[in-house]
């Protein structure tokens, strides 16, 4: 069934999933961009972890539209898991799973910065099959399908490799979200030839890697809604990912952290080594 769905929905042009993502953003996110009232913004786990009425409304919109496209599928969304952590267990089940981050980069969204996006991925049995990264304020839609490549606004994406001797810019986890051990690991990036910086929207950082404008990312958390779409996008653009244990990142969890995704395998391995990978 899932293969038939992929053939039907991903058969070229503007797919049904793309349309669902665009409609959710048009209905629930963009009308609220730079229009939020104070009471429409809530701190979940501190001042850097925000949720807005747009996040919740967009996730509800996508949950209805995506499950209608693929009967029998389920949704693992950031806000649903925040309300009920047991929802996350669907990633290990048999049903096809839509992994949804309705507004990735909520902090940017709240501050009126256009660098936010909606992330959707379709997975089954822990394997990401397709993904959509949509930045509505930037008018960017990136799509990846396993084994079929990646595109941005319909144009093929290739990450390429850094030029010899190029300083590697690496977006990394915000210090507020790292353990002391992870902070020490990320300090490995402070070395000659590498320029680390705090990440913005994870989805847009992955897109930058896939476009070849960012060498890599180094992240210390593993929520699937932040990473599933971007990891497939990078892989289908020719990049690579690895945890510090030298293993591919698993969306189902239990990864050795931090992990990296980079423009090519050699860059991923260099970053892994700097993070303390043996």
UniProtKB/TrEMBL annotation:
<dbReference type="GO" id="GO:0046854">
    <property type="term" value="P:phosphatidylinositol phosphate biosynthetic process"/>
</dbReference>
<feature type="binding site">
    <location>
        <position position="104"/>
    </location>
    <ligand>
        <name>Mg(2+)</name>
    </ligand>
</feature>
<keyword id="KW-0479">Metal-binding</keyword>
<feature type="binding site">
    <location>
        <position position="78"/>
    </location>
    <ligand>
        <name>Mg(2+)</name>
    </ligand>
</feature>
<dbReference type="InterPro" id="IPR000760">
    <property type="entry name" value="Inositol_monophosphatase-like"/>
</dbReference>
<dbReference type="GO" id="GO:0008934">
    <property type="term" value="F:inositol monophosphate 1-phosphatase activity"/>
</dbReference>
<dbReference type="GO" id="GO:0006020">
    <property type="term" value="P:inositol metabolic process"/>
</dbReference>
<dbReference type="Pfam" id="PF00459">
    <property type="entry name" value="Inositol_P"/>
</dbReference>
<keyword id="KW-0378">Hydrolase</keyword>
<dbReference type="InterPro" id="IPR020550">
    <property type="entry name" value="Inositol_monophosphatase_CS"/>
</dbReference>
<dbReference type="GO" id="GO:0046872">
    <property type="term" value="F:metal ion binding"/>
</dbReference>
<feature type="binding site">
    <location>
        <position position="101"/>
    </location>
    <ligand>
        <name>Mg(2+)</name>
    </ligand>
</feature>
<dbReference type="InterPro" id="IPR020583">
    <property type="entry name" value="Inositol_monoP_metal-BS"/>
</dbReference>
<protein>
    <recommendedName>
        <fullName>inositol-phosphate phosphatase</fullName>
        <ecNumber>3.1.3.25</ecNumber>
    </recommendedName>
</protein>
<dbReference type="GO" id="GO:0007165">
    <property type="term" value="P:signal transduction"/>
</dbReference>
<keyword id="KW-0460">Magnesium</keyword>
<feature type="binding site">
    <location>
        <position position="226"/>
    </location>
    <ligand>
        <name>Mg(2+)</name>
    </ligand>
</feature>
């Amino acid at each position: 069934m899932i293969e038939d769905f992929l053939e039907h929905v991903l058969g070229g042009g503007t797919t049904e999933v793309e349309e669902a993502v665009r409609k959710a953003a048009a209905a629930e996110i963009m009308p609220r961009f730079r229009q939020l009232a104070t009471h429409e913004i809530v701190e979940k786990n501190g001042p850097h972890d925000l949720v807005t009425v747009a996040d919740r409304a967009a996730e509800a919109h996508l949950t209805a539209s995506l499950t209608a496209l693929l009967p029998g599928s389920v949704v693992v969304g950031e806000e649903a898991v925040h309300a009920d952590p047991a929802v996350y267990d669907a990633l290990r089940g048999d049903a096809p799973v839509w992994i949804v981050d309705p507004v990735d980069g909520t902090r940017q969204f709240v501050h009126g910065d256009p660098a936010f996006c909606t992330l959707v991925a379709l997975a089954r049995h822990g394997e990401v099959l397709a993904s959509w990264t949509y930045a509505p304020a930037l008018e960017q839609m990136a799509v990846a399908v396993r084994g079929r490549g990646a595109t941005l606004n319909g144009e093929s994406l290739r990450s390429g490799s850094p030029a010899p001797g190029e300083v590697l810019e690496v977006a990394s986890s915000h210090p507020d979200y790292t353990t002391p051990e992870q902070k020490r690991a990320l300090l490995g990036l402070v070395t000659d030839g590498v320029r680390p910086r705090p990440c913005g929207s994870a989805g847009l950082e992955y897109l930058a890697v896939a476009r070849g404008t960012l060498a890599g990312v180094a992240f210390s958390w593993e929520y699937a809604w932040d990473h599933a779409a971007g990891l497939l996008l990078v892989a289908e653009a020719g990049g690579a990912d690895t945890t510090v244990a030298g293993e591919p990142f698993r969306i189902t969890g239990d990864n050795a952290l931090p992990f990296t995704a980079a423009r090519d395998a050699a860059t991923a391995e260099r970053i892994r080594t700097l993070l303390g990978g043996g």
